[in-house]
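Summary for the funding panel

The consortium committed to producing paired sequence-structure records for every protein in the target list. Below we show the first two records in order, beginning with the earlier of the two.
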Amino acid sequence: MAPERCGGAEGRDTWTDLEVINSLGSLGGEVRPVTPAWLLACTWDQWSFLEQEVYFSQFSEGSPTAESLRAVGSDPDEVWNVVFCPVSSESFRANPGVLLTGVLGTWPVGDSPPQVVIDWLVSRAYASVQLPLQVGQGAPFGDDDAPMITQLPTWLWVDDAVWAPVSVTSPPLFGITATVTATPVNVTFNGAGESVDCGPNLGPVYDFSRSGEDQSSDCTITYRHSSATDDWDLASTITWEISYSCSIACSVAPFADLVVPNSRPVTVAELQAVLVASGA
């Protein structure tokens, strides 16, 4: 059999230097990785060994025949998988062989794909990950009905529905599935010049059925001035750790964490004290 074509990845970070886009707005919605267009545009086919050798002969001297392949012990009718990808600077970074041939990898049907194709399958699953998007909850929330109050700590936390792992399993391709899981591992809140890192703790939820003296939180921010003096926002940054597994052996090359920032405007009110003269 012929040697594998275009086998071996140069590291997953060359494929996934990705940013995250906000798809549905600041108060809630979803975000997903922005995946290189070339990676999603790859196609695949099945060729006989002779067909793929004739294809590659365009880039080298000599065109093989069935007789010449049999003479060296190769079966010209053996069926191979072939993955084609658009030629671009991005695909070249993933594997330089693509620049010359437009082929990401080839391998006999029934064998395991080369590592670069397995990485491509994992990256296709990664492109389907959708993360819930929310700045976070607050007590008070910070809208007109429940404004934050100057000089008083605002409790902050992330909803349980957001603070939970998200997994995507790709449809089988070449008999292989890939599962990518994003797990929230850290949240930081910013507002009014303050920053609080709540770490892996999504923050205790304020219990309105209990008095403030009976509960506490280290995940708070205090606004010093009201909305009468300036416009205020509350921002959060949630870090998601990415892991993956495959139905066959996967590469150990890691994905970088997904860092998702978001913000929303908040209303801050000021409580006015009224002095009443003694005996009035």
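The next record, for a separate protein in the list, is shown here:
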Amino acid sequence: MKTFIITCKKLQDRLPEAVKTATTLTNNYTPVRSWDAEELNQEAIDDYGKIAKLRWTAAVKEIAPILQSNVQASQNQNEGAFQSYIENVNKYRKDKIIEVPNWMKSRCLSAGEISVLMKHFWAIGNIANGWDEYGLILEDDVRVHDQSKKEFKMCLKEFIEQNGDYLDLAGGCNLHSGAEDTRLKYSSLLAIPRTRTNAAYIVRKDLAKTLMNKFLPLIFPIDWHLQYIMPKSANVFWANKPPLIHGSEQGLVSSWRQ
């Protein structure tokens, strides 16, 4: 299985640790350095931004129930919000959202967001057109801990045995699975396919083909965008105990947004 490291020239000091993460998990990696924000044509950025803003308002209503439930679950995880995650999603669907909250309203994508989207698009395309059945995508702020290799292997084993399409490996945003099947020790199948932060994930080749064909035009930042184009039939899993550390979320490195 090949690993693709989402990185940029401006943050090359992160690459050695990212390579350490990749080589701990797989023996084949490729840094994705193209489409850095500083290298993008400003006219193209403006055009993408306008396209995104035009499409955003209608598109966000498709994922608004999941985004809203994610926020509620994240804010109330200690109160057992994840037990009622599916009920929350269904409730918002029935409400037939007409007006979305301010934090969901349309805006232009930044150069950094477009850069990250294109890097993920390239990596997903390579998985779709490659020889391997699965590919791993890592952003350069993902780190390993002492048990990462063991937990990764066990999580991957369950994922493959359960015919998985997508596996979230680094967690994020205080979100837990609200899963359909929690009998598995290392990973959980989600009743409603959805994404978190996309810091580290495995994609099956067939799903990569579907995502690649639906990826353009760019509409949302990467986490919302993958949520929007994710097929409802996809077998999406999250690691019960993420084997990888999302470094920027844990304060180990700064976020590229900063």
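Regarding this second record: The chain is about 40% helix and 15% strand. The CA atoms of residues 6 and 139 lie 5 Å apart.
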